[in-house]
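Let us walk through a complete example step by step. Step one is to write down the protein sequence. Step two is to encode the small molecule, pyridoxal-5'-phosphate, as a SMILES string so that its atoms and bonds are unambiguous. Step three, shown after the inputs, is the structure prediction itself.
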Amino acid sequence: MLAGQPTYHGALSAITASGARAVPVSMTDDGWDLDAMEAAMHQLAPDLVYLIADNRNPTGHTLPAADRKRLAHIVTGTRTRTVVDETISGIWLGQPVPPPPAAELTRRRDLDLTVGSVSKSFWGGLRIGWIRAERSVMPAAMRPSVDMGTAILEQLSAAELLVHTDELPPGRREDPAGAPNPTRGAWRNVTGAVAPETTTVV
Ligand SMILES: Cc1ncc(COP(=O)(O)O)c(C=O)c1O
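Step three: the predicted structure of the complex.
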C-alpha cells in the first residue's frame, strides 16, 4: 500500500495490523511529488494508495485542485484503488479545501474509497467513523475484523449531526478547544439528555 511520507501514524498502524506493507513516497516541502507517486504506481502496482488530500496530518498541506485532477488521471490510468482519508477535511483554517478527489473520479467510482469520522468536525467524544465504497470493491483487508459494537445512541447522534454538516464545523474551526460542544443539541434531540458543555480535542 502506497502512502505519503510522513503520514498519519494511526494509518500506518492500521496498514501494518491488517498484514499489508506500507511503501513510502516522500512528501516535499511544498506537498506532494506527483511524479514520484505516478512512477511508484506504475512500477509497484500497489493494491491501494492511502491519501490525505486535505489539511494533511502531520504536514498541514492541502492538495491543490489542479493536482487533484492530475491525481485522478494517474489513478484511472494505473487503475489503482485509492483510499482518501477525509477525517480532517472539515477543519480547514485559512480557506476551504477544494472539492474532494472523488469528484474527479466520477467515471471510476470503483477506484475510490473514502474514510471519515465525526471526531474532528463535531466532537472528539463521539467515536463514530465510516468507510464509503462500492460494496463490490471493498477489500477484505478494510473490513473490521472485530465488531466494534458502537452504541446505538452514538450512531443516532452521528446520524443527526451529519444533517448539520454545514453548520457545526465552523465553531470547531474558530475555537476547537473552547467552542461549546456542538453535539449537545443532537444529544438532546436523540435522548432528551444533556451532554458535556465543552468540546475535547484529540
Ligand atoms: C488523518 C486522520 N485520519 C484519521 C484519524 C483518526 O480519527 P478518529 O479520532 O476519529 O479515530 C486522525 C486523527 O487524528 C487523522 O488525523
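Step four is interpretation. The mean pLDDT is 86.
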